């Protein structure tokens, strides 16, 4: 599994995106299958077809939004894509309404309650699996480092917590997972933070990991190449006096991203496991050991990704809150698609704003 992980990373972000989509589909299949088994709903008319139809609708909506957002130039160049982009939300809503009407028409008197159980089951599964896997794609487009480091921290915490718990565990952590111990939980946290710092230091030095995925108009291809931002340039930091006396260093050189990796690894260690506890509670509620038997000895795909989806959501929120700012290139791309009179209006407004602040006058005097 580890070797396969390295191979798909080597193949690049577009392959990773396809892998994420395949994982999402498999996770959806595992949870929906449990619903069929629990509610004995194999004979419900159209329902298996409708479940997959709703998955298709939601994926069309999310992936369409992603393509329009990140590859705006490519979309505007192609007439069919431009039309699909312009009416994307309307088309998505129309597709969903079609499925909704099909569900209503499929209702059978003796199965009303069961059919609504499964309708709710499908939508909750879509919310948990599809929405969060879509956030994984967003994180990936911001730079592979935002994809690899969080995933690796979750894997590291899972392994370290198990090892420390196996050798030193004495105090049970939670009843949902009797084998989890406080000793493994706490020591796994410190091991994961150290691992996150080291992995971030190594990856921050490579453009292929830190640069966002962009579409190159000249080569008509997707590229991962840029001038690394300040987040991925070595900086010198002063060490607090209390720690200076212990280690004898006054300053340390590190990447700013390493500081952010502490937040990521802390979440992976302290909150991430609750995704696993949630999955354990779900399986106990329906008296099943694993979501499926896809991976021998590991259960289903969902058994391996229960913590990863929660982690992906946190990373996306973290980037939006503390990292991502307005993107000038995207603003310019959208500006160029406006009518000439709209462009002129924005130009005059911006010119007046810069003149009032004295920025435009100063720039002209410098010239």
Automatic annotation (TrEMBL):
Pfam families: CTP_transf_1 (PF01148). One of its GO terms (molecular function) is phosphatidate cytidylyltransferase activity. It is a multi-pass membrane protein. GO terms for cellular component: membrane. The keyword Transferase applies. It is found in: Membrane. It is an enzyme of class 2 (transferase). The chain crosses the membrane at residues 6-25, 46-63, 90-108, 115-137, 143-164, 185-203, 259-279. Keywords: Lipid biosynthesis, Lipid metabolism, Membrane, Nucleotidyltransferase, Phospholipid biosynthesis, Phospholipid metabolism, Transferase, Transmembrane, Transmembrane helix. Its main location: membrane. Pathway: Lipid metabolism; Phospholipid metabolism; CDP-diacylglycerol biosynthesis; CDP-diacylglycerol from sn-glycerol 3-phosphate: step 3/3. It catalyses: 1-octadecanoyl-2-(5Z,8Z,11Z,14Z-eicosatetraenoyl)-sn-glycero-3-phosphate + CTP + H(+) = 1-octadecanoyl-2-(5Z,8Z,11Z,14Z-eicosatetraenoyl)-sn-glycero-3-cytidine-5'-diphosphate + diphosphate; 1,2-di-(9Z,12Z-octadecadienoyl)-sn-glycero-3-phosphate + CTP + H(+) = 1,2-di-(9Z,12Z-octadecadienoyl)-sn-glycero-3-cytidine-5'-diphosphate + diphosphate; 1-octadecanoyl-2-(4Z,7Z,10Z,13Z,16Z,19Z-docosahexaenoyl)-sn-glycero-3-phosphate + CTP + H(+) = 1-octadecanoyl-2-(4Z,7Z,10Z,13Z,16Z,19Z-docosahexaenoyl)-sn-glycero-3-cytidine-5'-diphosphate + diphosphate; a 1,2-diacyl-sn-glycero-3-phosphate + CTP + H(+) = a CDP-1,2-diacyl-sn-glycerol + diphosphate. Its EC number is 2.7.7.41. Belongs to the CDS family. This is Phosphatidate cytidylyltransferase. It comes from Mus musculus.
